[in-house]
Amino acid sequence: MKRLAFVAAVTVAIALAGCSASDGIADKYGDKTDKGYLTGEGWNSYPADTRTDAVSYESETDEGAPVSSKDYLGEVVVINFWYAACVPCRVEAPILESLNTEYADQGVQVLGVNTRDSADTAKGFAEKFGVSYPSLLDVDSGNVLFAFAGVVPANATPTTLVIDKKGRVAARISGQLDGRGLLDGFIKEALAEDA
Question: Which domains does the chain have, with CATH numbers?
């Protein structure tokens, strides 16, 4: 009888522990804050021999200039999916700008992909936060977002991708950049690879 009571107590304890286990998502809402967004923190790096084919897209900048993925073959491209009201996007804008400035003459192009805003809103954001790299407007067409969806979806805003010199996804950082270290490392790795 005592053994049966012990087994029952252990079973209940395990079940209760399972109900209270953290899955990461619950932690985002446990403090009852209303952030208005759900981050997907995490990162993936894809070794060169496992990468899929180059991702092709065409779009237009907030200044109206046409852009194609073919324009950047032979360069490393950092693509950041963002929108103006996204708080983490505001926090990481200076990080992206500093990397853009540092690597501008080394064959690296930073591109924003605005998923929600008009050209005027995107340009206002760039002016307010000192962003000099171009942003593609994706709100109407979704061309860029859909181009990457079959390879490595941008499942959080912001999401930052590092594209290798062949146009393939080399790394993805989901959620807000935590400083420049991780992205800087991915850029250096992609630059060191052969075209």
Answer: 42-192 (3.40.30.10)
